[in-house]
């Protein structure tokens, strides 16, 4: 029984695809994007009450939410000032760590897979060589229902 090894092409193509994905992700990670690319959009900013478990803003050691509820925060609009309510204060989050972590993992996996596939393809014998599977002569005879084949005599000089 013969077993064929995969051809170089069957490893080169996926290897090249993995390296292309790694290159694209690497470019995206390093590409200069707008400054607030990873920030929560302003129109989706969270209220202080909703963000209570993730952020706490303090003014002189007192939470902003409490100061706003007590009427201690004012906004000067140029035409006058007004007291800020807690609902006037919104919070945006920077999600860069979560977004770039996933991209970095994809980059690392793609780069590693691409390099491994290309190295294995380079180490394969040329032309898709066949590897003979070795069998024990007595097992071979048992599975085929016959006598084991006689061993061929070898000449003394060989």
Describe the structure.
The protein is 41% helix and 13% strand. Helix 1 runs antiparallel to helix 3. The radius of gyration is 34 Å and the shape is rod-shaped. The strands form four sheets. A two-stranded antiparallel sheet has the order 1-8. Strands 2-7 form a two-stranded antiparallel sheet. The chain has a two-stranded antiparallel sheet with strand order 3-4. Strand 5 and strand 6 form a beta hairpin. It has 158 residues and is α+β, with helices and mostly antiparallel strands. About 3% of the residues have low confidence. It contains four helices and eight strands, in the order βαβββαβββαβα.
Count of helix runs: 4
Q: What percent strand?
A: 5-15%
The quaternary organization reads as: single chain
Low-confidence stretches: 131-135
Distance between the termini: 26 Å
Computed CA radius of gyration, to the nearest angstrom = 34 Å
- What gross morphology would you assign? rod-shaped
* Structural class by helix and strand composition: alpha+beta
* pLDDT averaged over residues: 76
Overall helicity: 40-55%
Order of helices and strands: EHEEEHEEEHEH
Comma- or semicolon-separated keywords:
158 residues; alpha+beta; two-stranded antiparallel ribbon; 8 strands; rod-shaped
List the SSEs and their pairings:
Blueprint: E1 2-4, H1 8-30, E2 46-47, E3 58-59, E4 62-63, H2 64-69, E5 74-76, E6 81-83, E7 90-91, H3 96-123, E8 130-132, H4 137-144
Antiparallel strand pairs: 1-8, 2-7, 3-4, 5-6
How do you describe this structure in short?
By secondary structure, the protein is α+β, with helices and mostly antiparallel strands.
